[in-house]
């Protein structure tokens, strides 16, 4: 479980330096990881970005100091990383629902985000259905967007990207083009290894396709890989999110594999994605 311990060690580092100017490069280095892979693992396990965690923890500590000291609000603004009292007040109100002045007067409730402790379940109470398969490289065609993982932009905007594709008919076109080895429409996470510390990732909505690439679409080569393929049963998006958590909190810590770092796939079948009987898959290249 070395990688799990490294995440907890990194959380401890963040907490010890919470009032300093932290960068994602520094944080990922403590975990001995790239910015992308640390941010992705962290967000899967916690449902928030590293930046969100730091912001929430700082504002939690700021609220505690506000009601337990005579420190001026302007001084607390600078101490907890805000350039102006106005910016601090806006962020404080967004998290706590009250202004710093009202909090000092004990008007309203405050919202506390406690220090994270990563707990890993190895009991396997809920069985996971998976298989391991080796596949040759194949072509995927579709559309892509680029997101910044440092800011959590991927967590917020990928669902909007799917909404766009489902609304404008691209989803249906991709199902029609799907004549490759993997059946279904794919969500593909891709990180350029030469830029892995930039925090940028490409996210594709595509399908496996043999043949020419339609003019309005782009193509991506998925490399030959050894894959672990997990079954996902249930309505979207919760079934997919819950399975990702189970993979990282149970399956990887109790198996001898690690992610290979090449594109990962979510595979969506045709049918009613809101149905409890909906079937999909997660494909992770491993080594």
From TrEMBL:
The keyword Transcription applies. Keywords: DNA-binding, Transcription, Transcription regulation. GO terms for molecular function: DNA-binding transcription factor activity; sequence-specific DNA binding. It holds the Pfam family Cass2. Residues 8-106 form the HTH araC/xylS-type domain. PANTHER family: RIGHT ORIGIN-BINDING PROTEIN. This is AraC family transcriptional regulator. The keyword Transcription regulation applies. InterPro entries: AraC_E-bd, Cass2, Homeodomain-like_sf, HTH_AraC, HTH_AraC-typ_CS, MarA-like, Reg_factor_effector_dom_sf, Tscrpt_reg_AraC-type_HTH. The lineage of its organism: Bacteria, Bacillati, Bacillota, Bacilli, Bacillales.
């Amino acid at each position: 479980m070395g990688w799990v311990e490294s995440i907890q060690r990194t959380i401890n580092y963040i907490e010890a330096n919470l009032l300093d100017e932290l960068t994602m490069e520094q944080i990922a280095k403590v975990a001995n990881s790239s910015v992308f892979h640390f941010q992705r693992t962290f967000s899967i396990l916690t449902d928030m970005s590293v930046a969100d965690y730091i912001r929430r923890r700082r504002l939690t500590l700021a609220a505690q100091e506000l009601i337990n000291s005579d420190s001026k609000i302007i001084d607390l603004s600078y101490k907890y990383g805000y350039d102006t009292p106005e910016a601090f007040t806006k962020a404080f109100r967004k998290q706590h629902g009250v202004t710093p002045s009202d909090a000092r007067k004990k008007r309203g409730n405050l919202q506390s985000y406690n220090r994270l402790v990563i707990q890993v379940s190895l009991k396997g109470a809920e069985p996971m259905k998976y298989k391991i398969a080796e596949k040759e490289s194949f072509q995927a065609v579709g559309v892509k967007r680029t997101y910044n993982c440092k800011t959590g932009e991927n967590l917020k905007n990928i669902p909007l990207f799917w909404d766009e594709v489902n609304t404008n008919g691209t989803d249906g076109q991709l199902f029609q083009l799907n004549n490759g080895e993997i059946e279904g429409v794919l969500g593909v996470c891709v990180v350029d290894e030469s830029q892995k510390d930039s925090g940028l990732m490409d996210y594709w909505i595509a399908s496996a396709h043999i043949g020419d690439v339609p003019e309005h679409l782009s193509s991506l080569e998925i490399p030959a890989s050894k894959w672990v393929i997990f079954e996902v049963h249930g309505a979207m998006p919760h079934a997919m999110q819950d399975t990702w958590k189970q993979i990282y909190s149970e399956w990887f810590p109790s198996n001898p594999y690690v992610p290979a770092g090449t594109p990962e796939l979510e595979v969506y079948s045709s049918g009613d994605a809101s149905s409890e009987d909906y079937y999909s898959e997660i494909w992770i290249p491993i080594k």
